[in-house]
From TrEMBL, chain A:
This is Oxidoreductase. PANTHER family: 1,2-PHENYLACETYL-COA EPOXIDASE, SUBUNIT E (PTHR47354:SF8), NADH OXIDOREDUCTASE HCR (PTHR47354). The chain crosses the membrane at residues 41-59, 71-96, 117-139, 159-178, 190-208, 220-240. InterPro entries: FAD-bd_8, FAD-bd_FR_type, Fe3_Rdtase_TM_dom, FNR_nucleotide-bd, MRET, OxRdtase_FAD/NAD-bd, Riboflavin_synthase-like_b-brl. Residues 1-34 are annotated as: Disordered. Keywords: 2Fe-2S, FAD, Flavoprotein, Iron, Iron-sulfur, Membrane, Metal-binding, Oxidoreductase, Transmembrane, Transmembrane helix. Its cofactor is FAD. It comes from Micromonospora costi. Residues 246-346 form the FAD-binding FR-type domain.
Automatic annotation (TrEMBL), chain B:
This is FMN-binding protein. Residues 115-191 form the FMN-binding domain. Residues 44-104 have a biased composition (Low complexity). It comes from the Bacteria.
Length: 471, 193
């Protein structure tokens, strides 16, 4: 489809005129802003913790005491060990689904941090292992292999520690994007769960052999307290909070509706839905309690703003699990974990927004549109007209919330979409681009392409909100 | 991924920086010089003017900053089965021992300005029956003599360690630093026993 055609056929809806039109019927209240303050505070806390974890080494080591290369290597091994130990706890904490983290940092950002810190942990652990090996071998005049034997044979908890490293390498390796996407999600997830083993197996050697930790004292106590705190956060975030949520709301499938040949909407009902603290654009991790599905949990966005009667999620059928969802019977119990995500109107920094959605990425955007201040603009990328979802609701929202909507149809390499998603194309559609929040949701390719175009068009990174879904 | 790369680079750079800061050769040379001429005892009091707080910090810090891991049994394979206690080494978690078997527990190497000190104790049940040093500072003249003094005073089956059954030892005159390191290594060994 060519560019002019896209334009001609593109603007299917939209309010007649933003100026002089009838006032927008504001149905849902616009949520209050949640600034970045909480997030920054938490990030600062985590960084302070990192510095504090190396502090014992600094205080324990007399200046000028690292005379030989071996002693220097050992010292570096200790530093990397402390860093790795701390970051490993941070990794688990970030995935603990602790409400405070989900609320202030948000699932998407936590996911990105987890990814980056994960790579760092892996490197830190491997550095710790090799530096200590080299250092000890040098101090004792052993070969590295002999020293590895000595460590495994004569030191407490070292077999476990080596095993933990092995597991961590496996987890890290399978998380490399290319390898991860080649694995079935469930298998990958199971492997990734093995990271808890790293925590367990790596625990002992820190205290039996850690130079800063073997002696009873505030450092050792503090380190153990850190472990206890992380375990408490895990239990709170992964057990207590969901348990409370699900006991209170008791969600069930009410109806399964086809939205397009390959997309379905699930309507859920439950109790006390008026007290649901849900923002449009957020997601839950859903577990459908039927024979084939109960053991898998998948994140799906809610595709309509909160109301006191039902919840809806709209899902594209891409895998075996999503195919099973088609056959859910009304009445099926649903276990939900959430809501999480900072892809919401509450996280805006400006009064106006531009939303860019690709394919089924429209679902959180659709829910958010109900809560954004009037005057938003939406660019909706879809491969074919049949792939456009929820178009009637979008038309209605365009009217009710004074929203401009452009449908950009065609494959990624067609000139039309390419033109629209260029800096110039975006500026032409939305002249006040740089003064808007931009919400991006769609497949990684679209998100990356749009992100680049937006940055080049001069939109500050802090105004761009991402929700990439992994397939 | 770019941020991960930055984080890893930062980690490498700051680790190197920390090690270099602590091990800067300027201070270490200054710290190494005194043993050559000055007697051990006087030196410990009159800290070398090298400008670092090393001598002051050394006694407390050395115990944990020794390049050695805390595990002691490495040099005495005989001790392994007994000292491989299931629980972390707190005195309360000690498994009951038959009174007839002795076991050896080794303290960490404690580094001071003259060299390394490492103590090993032999226990019969809860009783320390012998103390020995696996390592003491050796070197020219004075250092060697002070090490001998320390060895004579503390070690053996009837030395001060066995008499006092603990790490509360009188400082060997002239060998303050080495006595101190001895006590630290010993204390850790006792804690671990």
């Amino acid at each position: 489809m060519t560019y002019p055609q896209t334009h001609a056929a593109g603007r299917r809806t939209g309010s007649p005129s933003r100026h002089g039109g009838r006032p927008a019927a504001v149905s849902s209240p616009v949520p209050a802003r949640r600034g970045p303050g909480g997030r920054r505070l938490l990030a600062a806390l985590l960084v302070t913790g990192l510095l504090a974890s190396v502090l014992p080494w600094w205080l324990d080591t007399p200046a000028g005491s690292l005379r030989s290369t071996a002693a220097a290597l050992t010292a570096a091994g200790r530093i990397t060990g402390l860093v790795a130990g701390y970051l490993l706890l941070v990794q688990v904490l970030m995935m603990s689904r602790l409400p405070v983290l989900e609320r202030w940092i948000g699932g998407e950002r936590l996911g990105r941090w987890h990814r980056d810190v994960g790579a760092t942990v892996l490197v830190a652990v491997l550095a710790h292992l090799s530096l200590i090996l080299l250092g000890y071998a040098g101090l004792r005049d052993h070969s590295v292999l002999t020293e590895a034997g000595v460590l495994l044979r004569d030191y407490e908890d070292m077999v476990e520690a080596f095993a933990a490293t092995g597991v961590l390498v496996l987890v890290g390796f399978t998380s490399v994007r290319a390898i991860r996407s080649a694995l079935p999600y469930e298998l990958w997830h199971l492997l990734h769960r093995a990271s808890y083993l790293v925590l367990l197996l790596g625990f002992g050697h820190q205290f039996s052999n850690g130079a800063q930790l073997f002696q009873p004292g505030p450092v050792r106590t503090g380190w153990i307290a850190l472990y206890a705190a992380v375990v408490a956060a895990l239990v709170w975030g992964r057990v207590v909070t969901p348990l409370r949520f699900n006991l209170r709301h008791r969600l069930r499938v009410a109806d399964v509706v086809a939205e397009s040949p390959d997309t379905i909407s699930l309507y859920l009902t439950g109790e006390r839905l008026d007290r649901l603290d849900l923002l449009g654009g957020q997601f839950f991790r859903w577990r459908f309690l039927t024979r084939g599905c109960w053991w898998q949990s998948h994140p799906f966005s809610v595709s309509a703003a909160a109301n006191d009667r039902w919840l809806r999620l709209t899902v594209k059928v891409v895998g075996t699990h999503t195919a099973d969802l088609r056959d859910l019977d009304p009445g099926t119990r649903v276990w939900a974990q959430g809501p999480s995500g900072t892809f919401t109107a509450a996280h805006r920094t400006r009064e106006r927004a531009l939303l860019i959605a690709g394919g089924s990425g429209i679902t959180p955007v659709r829910a958010m549109l109900e809560e954004l201040p009037p005057g938003a603009a939406l660019i909706y990328r879809a491969r074919t007209p049949a792939d456009v979802l929820l178009s009637r609701e979008l038309d209605w929202l365009a009217q009710a919330r004074d929203t401009d909507i452009w449908y950009v149809i065609g494959s990624r390499d067609d000139p039309g979409p390419r033109q629209v998603l260029s800096p110039d194309g975006l500026r032409r559609l939305v002249p006040d681009l740089t003064r808007r929040d931009v919400y991006l949701c769609g497949p990684p390719g679209l998100v990356e392409q749009s992100l680049r175009a937006l940055r080049r068009a001069g939109v500050p990174r802090g105004q761009i909100h991402l929700a990439t879904f992994e397939l | 991924m770019r941020r991960a790369f930055l984080a890893i680079t930062g980690l490498a750079a700051s680790t190197t920086a920390l090690v270099v800061l602590k091990g800067s050769p300027g201070t270490s040379q200054a710290a190494q010089e005194p043993p050559a001429g000055t007697p051990v005892g006087s030196e410990a009091a009159g800290a070398p003017p090298s400008g670092t707080d090393a001598p002051a910090a050394a006694p407390t810090a050395a115990a944990t900053s020794s390049p050695w891991p805390t595990r002691g049994a490495t040099r005495s394979p005989a001790a392994r089965p007994t000292s491989r206690a299931p629980a972390p080494r707190t005195t309360t978690a000690r498994p009951p021992q038959q009174p007839t078997t002795t076991r050896r527990v080794t303290g960490p190497i404690v580094e001071n300005e003259y060299g390394n000190v490492q103590v090993q104790i032999v226990l019969n049940g809860d009783r320390i029956v012998e103390a020995l040093t696996l390592e003491l500072p050796s070197g020219p003249g004075e250092t060697e003599r002070h090490s001998d003094d320390v060895r004579r005073a503390y070690n053996g089956t009837s030395g001060e360690v066995v008499r006092r059954q603990g790490a509360d030892l009188d400082t060997v005159s002239g060998a303050t630093e080495t006595s101190d390191s001895y006590r630290r290594s010993l204390r850790a060994a006792i804690e671990r026993a």
